[in-house]
Amino acid sequence: MPVRYQHTQKGGFWFYVSIIVFSLIYLWLLVSAGNRQVLDAEKIALVMLPILGGFLILMMSGLTVTIDDLSIQIRFGPGVFWKTYSLTKIADCQQVRNGWWWGYGIRWYIEGWLYNIAGMDAVEITFNNGKKIRIGTDEPEKLALAIKEAIK
User: Fold this and answer.
1) pTM here?
2) Which DSSP helix (H) or strand (E) runs through 63?
3) Which of 52, 91, 144, 152 lies 20 to 30 Å from 16 when distance is taken between CA atoms?
């Protein structure tokens, strides 16, 4: 199946800030644990925290949007979290701007699902049944144009 559009948006400023903050918190936990008797639960946490944190950081490292002849696929990081939407079910799309308070990741907003990795620009897709999703992107014009061309 030929790809009509594919773009990966990398995690932005807050992605890198989260790496730094996560690392500092982990270092603080290690130093404080070294200065006293460590409980078994704390040992487990000290092992699990970098594994879980590293997994979450990897998942939020990028958002890839791919459009082929049949569908739009949204993929976080290396592709553990992904969602596919059929082009035949899309009625329209438009460029929009998210509020900063809507945050990042996969979340519910007032009208539907939001997939966002960085920034406030997005493309809102309206389906034939009236439901909506928003896909965050650093190139909203290109993504909206690619979707409109694909659903013709």
Assistant:
1) 0.79
2) strand 62-68
3) 144
Full domain range(s) for residue 112: 3-9+63-150
CA distance 12 to 33: 32
Alpha-carbon gap, residue 138 to 151, rounded angstroms: 21
Which one-letter amino acid corresponds to residue 41?
A
**What integer pLDDT is reported at residue 51 of this predicted model?**
83
For the chain, what is the domain count? 2
The kind and range of the H/E element at 25 are helix 13-34
- Which H or E run includes 123? strand 121-127
pLDDT given for residue 36 in this prediction: 75
**Residue for token pair 């493309």:** 123
